[in-house]
Design goal:
heterodimer; A: alpha+beta; Rossmann fold; 2 domains; six-stranded mixed beta sheet; 21 strands; B: 230 residues; mainly alpha; MetI-like fold
Chain lengths: 363, 230
Amino acid sequence: MLEVGIRHSFGDFSLDADFTAPSGVTALFGRSGSGKTTIINAVAGLLTPDEGRIVWQDTVMLDTSRAINLRPHRRRIGYIFQEGRLFPHLSVRQNLGYGARFAPKSAARESMGRIVEMLAIGDLLDRRPGALSGGEKQRVAIGRALLSAPELVLADEPLAALDEERKAEILPYFERLRDEISVPILYVSHSASEVARLATTVVALEAGRVVGQGTAAEVLGDPAILPVGAREAGAVLTAHVKAHHPDGLTELEAGGIALFLPTVNAAPGSRLRIRIAAHDVMLSRKRPEGLSALNILHGTVHSVRPGDGPGALVALDTPAGRVLARITRRSAQTLELSSGVTAHAIVKTVSVAASDVGAAGVA
Amino acid sequence: MDWLGPEEWKAVALSLKVSFWATLFSLPLGVFVAYALARWTFPGKHILNGLVHLPLILPPVVTGYLLLLTFGTRGPVGGVLAEYGIVFAFRWSGAALAAAIMAFPLMVRAIRLSIEAVDPKLEQASSTLGAPPIWVFATVTLPMALPGIIAGAILAFAKAMGEFGATITFVSNIPGQTRTIPSAIYAFLQVPGGEASAMKLVIVSVVVAMGALLLSEVIGRRVAARVGGR
């Protein structure tokens, strides 16, 4: 478990954040300028906050009140930077092996072969970083961090510098990391879909303050916590793959409700996380009939949160889980939506993007 | 090389020896000072920077005279060193010391620029991978700054080959001891019929200087390609 408490100010910005990160992927989630990178750099030891205490398991990495501040190289972390930061004068193989020589002999370490295989970088080993594509560089950077035998992996927006295709290429590797490697990961992101797919725990940040902490479904489904704004809101459901149909649809099951998505590349029986963007959800008080949409989830309204503009965010508790719907305030009034009333959420099959569907790992 | 007479040959060999040792001994200090100026903030940084550059601006004769005052056998440093049998004044080692000090600013400038060009983010990455500071320097900063370090060393060597004013003031112009190429050219020009010998040494100077520049180009380019990650 990682315990973090940091107070730091520079210019107009002040950071005052306390949270704990259990095992698995803990996402620091918020828009740019919310203090995510400051926190992760403080955990890495690259930045010394004005005041703070950072404890990893039994190791006190930082305690300003006791003048303890471990240098970065003593913190046993693996840092995956946004820009990769591979050593340009070393080959991929040398980059991967760089950290291993500094790790204590007794440290539990991943084998080079396994990591190379997992990240599919076997063909790149003799190349230099200058000859790699953006996605390849980032895969090597992930491998380099893992092979330094870290006790904790930090990732600062590792996909932000990549285009959508490269993101889709790298995200599954992070899912495998979460599911196959026991090392906990602190993952900084401003992307709701990345967080929805990866995070075991989400710490939501706004203007240097922690505004929410919990599971991805809890935090992303809470209309009161919108670290990146209502436009990005969307709840996370966990579902099982039931069957692939010949008409190009995959049937899933969540809490007894059947969901249909465009073909998902996952075997029947596997668990998936699906992020359903709030602006893709319609609401109806009565069960709609004669509708083209295939996914209809019944539930009880948990809360209605009016936005600053014409919109409102409605949280609906369904057997499949919490669903968020972004509708107009006018509709919310007309439908007399308020806490406790029943409603149906309608999700068009084709509106669920492939990038919003990912492996959920083991429960 | 019959083309050079024994006198001239002696001067060339001495110049090469003096420049070689001057460069070799000042290089580690040059890298250290350049690193300190490029990466650290400390009180007196401007003073250190000024001291390093002083030989570039002072008249060489002044530098030579200050060296004589300091490192002469009766000088504050020279006197102490003399007790341990280390004498600089009027020896070839003194010529090397003078050459090293005169070439030092050029060396430090080239190396400092190349160290400043190394992205500190790579050094951070190295430290997060567990590398202690000295290893960060040895495995990231130093190899990446290598083109500049080589250029600085060759520049310093060429400068040492041509050093005259400080050398002749500090260690005089003793054949076989402190008569380097420039001193020899000067001496040949003082005697009737010495022009031919002087001209030969002028040619040697030009060839060595050009060779040094070309070499630094070639090495620099190779290392830069390697460091550039291609």
